[in-house]
């Protein structure tokens, strides 16, 4: 065996026995961390963030670190759960000095009017979108979650929780089909944390890599997290029968190792799911509309009244649902408004488009009035 092969084998052996392997540590992370290792810093993964402090799991165990050195004005660059950080080996307090470049990042817009994004989780491989079957399906909300998930770079997975509340298999099958139509290219899995149905399949799907659990309050995320973790780690409270809402049993984002492999980030229930520069994600959710758009006569077809529009033709022949097109337009408009708040060029384009449509509307009204006369 050559010295290079021997060296490579030794590196692999060392990597495979690293204490942080269960948390997702691999050779690529080790290579990126090498310059910080030379500075005497420790690698660690952030398992929880709270008010300028973060809990970090390292080869030396769990420690608390101050994030003062990694707190820029940009809210998308603050330390978050799932980050890999370089921390001091000792000192009081210990500091997280920097974090490694993120492979993926799940970002939403804040509910404020400050045009800010909020990062919910970093370095995620699977985005588990929990949807409760205790209430009527909100397909529009599912599409919104999916757009953010695709944009993050993670692979989405829709989990229909509380499947035991659906009285028959036929009804459950129809619900799964409805969501599959809404989520092209995404696995849809009905589960029941009460009976255990489907939880083993879900555990197998997410056993490799990092998964983030997302959904509204009352979607059954904490119960599902406990089922995946094999113990009652997350507190669970009763859901109100009147509206299916929970009481935010999860108040912080926590990263936990699953017994079957992989790690899980549980998140608080999200009241709002605002898009944040997610045009690519929207296009992925509505892939069938994007594909039809390529067949339109005009490359800049708005799919409204243009002749030769393949999207409108699909609406007419019933192969495309009107609801899907309306949802597609709504999310694109919302995303453009968010991006325009920080993009002067796009703001100018939108203003020109409004003026053009206003002029066309006035011209149409004048033509109608002239025709009446």
Kindly list the characteristics that best describe this protein.
six-stranded mixed β-sheet, 373 residues, OB fold (Dihydrolipoamide Acetyltransferase, E2P), disordered N terminus, 38% helix, globular, alpha/beta, Ribonucleotide Reductase Protein R1, domain 1, 11 helices, single chain, five-stranded antiparallel β-sheet
List the helices and strands and how they pair.
Layout: H1 3-16, H2 27-38, E1 42-50, E2 53-58, E3 61-66, E4 84-87, E5 96-99, E6 105-109, E7 117-122, E8 126-132, H3 139-152, E9 155-161, H4 169-182, E10 187-190, H5 199-205, E11 210-214, H6 221-229, E12 254-257, E13 263-266, H7 279-285, H8 287-293, H9 310-317, H10 322-340, H11 344-372
Parallel strand pairs: 8-9, 8-11, 9-10, 11-13
Antiparallel strand pairs: 1-2, 1-4, 2-3, 4-5, 6-7, 12-13
Helix pairs in contact: 3-7, 7-8, 10-11
Textual characterization of the structure:
- With 373 residues, the chain is of the alpha/beta class.
- The protein has three domains: 15-99, OB fold (Dihydrolipoamide Acetyltransferase, E2P), CATH 2.40.50.140; 105-266, Rossmann fold (3-Layer(aba) Sandwich); 279-372, Probable gtpase engc, domain 3 (Ribonucleotide Reductase Protein R1, domain 1).
- 38% of the residues lie in helices and 19% in strands.
- It has helices spanning 3-16, 27-38, 139-152, 169-182, 199-205, 221-229, 279-285, 287-293, 310-317, 322-340, 344-372; strands spanning 42-50, 53-58, 61-66, 84-87, 96-99, 105-109, 117-122, 126-132, 155-161, 187-190, 210-214, 254-257, 263-266.
- The strands form three sheets. The chain has a six-stranded mixed beta sheet, sandwiched between helices.
- Strand 9 (155-161), helix 4 (169-182) and strand 10 form a beta-alpha-beta unit.
- Helix 3 (139-152) crosses helix 7 (279-285), helix 7 crosses helix 8 (287-293) and helix 10 crosses helix 11.
- The longest helix is centred in the last third of the chain and has 29 residues, at 344-372.
- It is globular, with a radius of gyration of 24 Å.
